[in-house]
Amino acid sequence: MNPETFSVQTPASQAQAAIEIDALKAQLRRWAHAYYVLDAPSVPDGEYDRAYQRLERLEAQYPELATPDSPTQRVLGSVLPGLAPVRHALPMLSIRTETDTEASGARSFDARIRRELGLQESDAPVEYCAEPKFDGLAMNLRYEERQLVQAATRGDGEVGEDVTHNVRTIRQIPLRLPADAPALLEVRGEVYMRWADFERLNARQQDAGDKSFVNPRNAAAGSVRQLDARIAAQRPLSFFAYGTGESTPPEAGGPQWTTQYALLQQLKAWGFPVAPQVRVARGADELVAFHATMGTARAALAYGIDGVVYKLNSLQLQHRLGFVTREPRWAVAHKYPPQEMVTTVQGIDVQVGRTGKLTPVARLAPVFVGGATVTNATLHNLFELRRKRVRVGDQVIVRRAGDVIPEVVGVVSGTRAHYTPNFHMPRSCPVCGSAVVREPGQTDHRCSGGLFCPAQRKQALLHFASRKAMDIEGLGEKLVDQLVDGGIIQGLAELYALGAEQLAQLERMGEKSAQNLRAALDRSRHPSLARFLYALGIRNVGEATAKDLARHFGQLARVMQADTDRLMQVPEVGPIVAESIHTFFAQPHNREVVQALLAAGVQPQEAEPTPAASLALAGKTVVLTGQLPTLTREQAGALLEAAGARVAGSVSKKTSYVVAGEDAGSKLVKAQALGLTVLDEAGLHALLEGRL
Ligand SMILES: NC(=O)c1ccc[n+]([C@@H]2O[C@H](COP(=O)([O-])OP(=O)(O)OC[C@H]3O[C@@H](n4cnc5c(N)ncnc54)[C@H](O)[C@@H]3O)[C@@H](O)[C@H]2O)c1
Ligand SMILES: [Zn+2]
Fold first, then answer.
1. Which residue in 30, 7, 60 sits closest to 412, CA to CA?
2. Model pLDDT, residue 5
3. Is the pLDDT reported for residue 4 higher than 80?
4. Percent of the chain whose pLDDT exceeds 70
5. How far is the CA of 575 from the centre of ligand 2 (A)?
6. In this structure, which topology does domain 87-335 adopt according to CATH?
7. What pLDDT does 612 receive?
8. What is the whole-number distance in angstroms between the Cα of residue 65 and the centre of ligand 1?
9. Tens-place pLDDT, residues 570-603
10. Residue 9 confidence (pLDDT) above 70
């Protein structure tokens, strides 16, 4: 489907119009079926709306071609086989969408209402109830004798689906009403899914190998229309009330409210969630302001809204205006520019992030979406790309919502005109040429060029300088930016060649701080081997592993030469960690950086290897928690490590001992629950001296 197909040009003849109308109707019916019945839209809403409006325009131009079965004349949707049909006591209608997206939408609505009410220019502004337009699905909740007896979807407006079994599981929907509610009441509102719930659900679906949903509306509709209530009960659904259907008439003691706003406040009092943004707006200006305010607030909302709805506030005047075929005359929906659009993938590029992750990015034919022109959209990783089946030349749906980076949601199916080869991740980093690796079980591809790769340079420098690594005080983010962006240094080793004068010329660096940094650099020249290994930023090598490696091998050269088998002899080093250490040192670039550091005078303190097995606490894992009477946490840890123990941060079944001091918290509780041996400081000394 080419997005330009439904252009504004006028067909040359009535015959041509008839052909286009037929094509549009068929297309809209197909899309509506996928959307309403299968809960799996095949195109973004913007695309559907454009075709719909084109059809409306053609039918207005050639009224003789308009038929009652046209999608413009009826509410689309039908009953899913397996769900019981429900005939609505009062039809559930659609709402007319104002096509002008700018402020004029509100003004033309206000002008029409004033005209239809026969108001003069001198008459007071009309009062409206302005509400967010929630992006979910409409629900009719029927209460008899204040008990929820039935919940039904809109369906075709006349006949909906009975989904009571599922709606009962939505906690936000009251199952019974307070005593002051009328004997008969139908509440109408929107069942929707919050963004966070939607993302969690999709992650769960993916883990279970089930299909994920395109958007929260779909996920909500698909969940509500489950045949099995147990599935719906696991789906986190929410609800906002926005109106009523049939109810006990006022003369029989039914509700007496006079405005839409009062009606909503009453529903709220009876326990229904009502959107906090609902406002009374007087005249077109206040509608325009509401539209603008909500447009700004929209990005930060926990749930999706696709526009706002303006309703005549007076229920009596609403009644006077009544309905046209499928829409009330007294309400209009004013949408926001679509956050999803269709465009073409012109290429797939690979970007390398600060941490070495390779991200495939779709290069797009420019498209205006979510209020900006988008030319690139992320495909996240190779697995996402494959799951979405994106290839160069495809028509894809692009989403840009708020400040979130634009992403490719999926391919518009059936648009691939000819064969295009599948995308493959490059074998070497497009920035530095180092090998690209992916760890087993991981989705991300990474550049293994660590220290060498310009894309990772800043991150590598910051990590190198950090407190637990080389501890170079004063080398922070701002400075690293200047050093790298200014082309002053390219690698780690060049840090040590920086003169104090050179440093003093940098922005926001006085002579004093330049000297301090210079001194910090000099101080860092004799790190422990463990710190040095950790500072290299080898993937999967944290502080603890660095210490294990240092203790086991004693010398840097031995670590660099070790193959994966040798590496796996280090306690706690498994195949994945061994592989990433080996790959790191197998890259000539990385070896060069290490050599350059040594040449620049950095000398890790080396020792004879002490194979852990020969030490008293070899193979033991100890967790420290709370405040010991005399030893600090660091001192206790150092003593334990010197005796061959591994000091871990969290308690598990594998923990050998827990050393607990004053104010020990959850770790102690967990240790006791697991039945582990808990020691105090005296117990720690006993352990170290082999008296335990
Ligand atoms: N992508 C597709 O293939 C596809 C296909 C069919 C329809 N659609 C989309 O569906 C929509 C048209 O469907 P429609 O006829 O159901 O109309 P609609 O969804 O635009 O408007 C009517 C609905 O708005 C909802 N609503 C939300 N907040 C409301 C409020 N405060 N007060 C009253 N109602 C509120 C109700 O559920 C009501 O049924 C369009 O947005 C269209 O893009 C998309
Ligand atoms: Zn690289």
1. 30
2. 43
3. no
4. 96
5. 23
6. D-amino Acid Aminotransferase; Chain A, domain 1 (3.30.470)
7. 57
8. 25
9. 888 999 999 999 999 998 888 999 999 999 999 9
10. no
Q: For the stretch 339-352, what's the b/e string if a residue is b when 16 or more beta carbons lie within 10 angstroms of its beta carbon?
A: bbbbbbbeebebeb
Q: For a pocket test of ligand 1, which of 93, 95, 97, 260 has the largest count of ligand atoms closer than 8 A to its C-beta?
A: 95
Identify the residue whose tokens are 């497009």.
Answer: 430
Which residue ranges make up the annotated binding site for NAD(+)?
A: 45-49, 94-95, 131, 154, 190, 311, 335
Residue of the CA atom closest to atom 26 of ligand 1:
133
**SS3 assignment, position 347:** strand
Outline where 600-664 has alpha helix (H): 633-642
At position 690, the amino acid (one-letter code) is G
Q: Where in the chain is the domain with CATH 1.10.150.20?
A: 440-614
Quick one: pLDDT at residue 245? 96
As its CATH architecture, domain 14-73 has Orthogonal Bundle (1.10)
Superfamily of domain covering 440-614: 5' to 3' exonuclease, C-terminal subdomain (1.10.150.20)
Q: Which atom of ligand 1 is nearest to the CA of 42?
A: 3
Is it the case that residue 665 has pLDDT exceeding 90?
Answer: no
Nearest residue (by CA) to ligand 1, atom 36, is 138
Predicted confidence (pLDDT) at residue 501 exceeds the cutoff of 70:
yes
| CATH hierarchy code of domain 340-411 | 2.40.50.140
Domain 617-688 has CATH 3.40.50.300: no
Top mutation candidate among 38, 39, 190, 239 for ligand 1, by most atoms within 8 Å of CB: 190
Q: Of all residues in the chain, what percent carry a pLDDT higher than 90?
A: 55
Quick: pLDDT tens for 421-454: 899 999 999 988 999 999 888 889 999 887 778 8
> Strands 331-335 and 97-98: what pairing?
parallel
* 313-321: long-range pairs with CB below 8 Å, 24+: 313/127, 313/128, 313/129, 313/259, 313/260, 313/261, 313/280, 314/127, 314/258, 314/259, 315/257, 315/258, 315/259, 315/260, 315/263, 316/258, 317/117, 318/260, 320/117, 321/113, 321/116, 321/117
Residues in the 5 Å CB sphere of ion ligand 2? 429, 431-432, 434, 447, 449, 453
As a whole number, the mean pLDDT across the chain is 89
Q: Predicted ipTM?
A: 0.94
Average pLDDT over residues 652-666: 88
Residues of the chain with CATH 2.40.50.140: 340-411
- 4 Cα to the center of ligand 2, angstroms: 40
**Ligand 1, CB within 6 Å, residue ranges:** 31-32, 34-35, 41-45, 48-49, 75, 94-95, 97, 131, 133-134, 138, 154, 190, 242, 309, 333
- The residues annotated with a catalytic role in the active site are 133
